[in-house]
Amino acid sequence: MFVFLLFFLTRMSRDMFDRLVHMLAPNAIFHSPKKKQRHVKYQVAAFLVRYGQRGSDVLDVASKLGLGLGTVHLYCRRVTRALRELRSHHLGWLGDERKKLVSQRIEARSGFPKCAGSGDGCQIRMSTAPVENPDEFLSRKKEHSTNVQATVDDECRFTSFDLGWPGCVTDSKIFKYSHLWRHRHHYFKDGEYILVDKGTVSSYLKLFLLIAHL
């Protein structure tokens, strides 16, 4: 039942789900010394049903999966912690050698030389308005949300991210205050750059691209 609801609600493929479970299963947080836990796949499924669809709250997940509210919270905390511990192994900026390979592949496919990837932003809608300063989280679509901005390489692997910004904040402002922009001369060398849409292209990025190509 868990798995059926997962694929129906989140559109995640079975292969991707199995890979995720395989990566998370060895984490000690899923192996209690005293009481045996439910299999990792059920905990991951509860996490994805809650966070993998638009605006799903704890009560909704508990009702669909036949779980207690506390159990949903517990499963989600465990999976969140396990995912965070995997971050350093699967997400990070390009090293010089990898960046060179990425740039070569992008140039071969699209003709853009020295391109280190692409970036974009998206909004994650909230099921309820925040208690504090709710108006700041209203997006241009008049939905309460938070912003996520990320960069990827040519294989769509994440190389950086900034998250937690209120929905009212523009992509260009998020980029301006991102670690990637503030430390741009550490990440980009000898005319390297990333491709972004017009929502991110501000005077700051234009200036950086100009300097990078001098």
From TrEMBL:
<protein>
    <recommendedName>
        <fullName>DDE Tnp4 domain-containing protein</fullName>
    </recommendedName>
</protein>
<dbReference type="InterPro" id="IPR027806">
    <property type="entry name" value="HARBI1_dom"/>
</dbReference>
<dbReference type="GO" id="GO:0046872">
    <property type="term" value="F:metal ion binding"/>
</dbReference>
<keyword id="KW-0479">Metal-binding</keyword>
<feature type="domain" description="DDE Tnp4">
    <location>
        <begin position="120"/>
        <end position="199"/>
    </location>
</feature>
<dbReference type="Pfam" id="PF13359">
    <property type="entry name" value="DDE_Tnp_4"/>
</dbReference>
<feature type="signal peptide">
    <location>
        <begin position="1"/>
        <end position="15"/>
    </location>
</feature>
<keyword id="KW-0732">Signal</keyword>
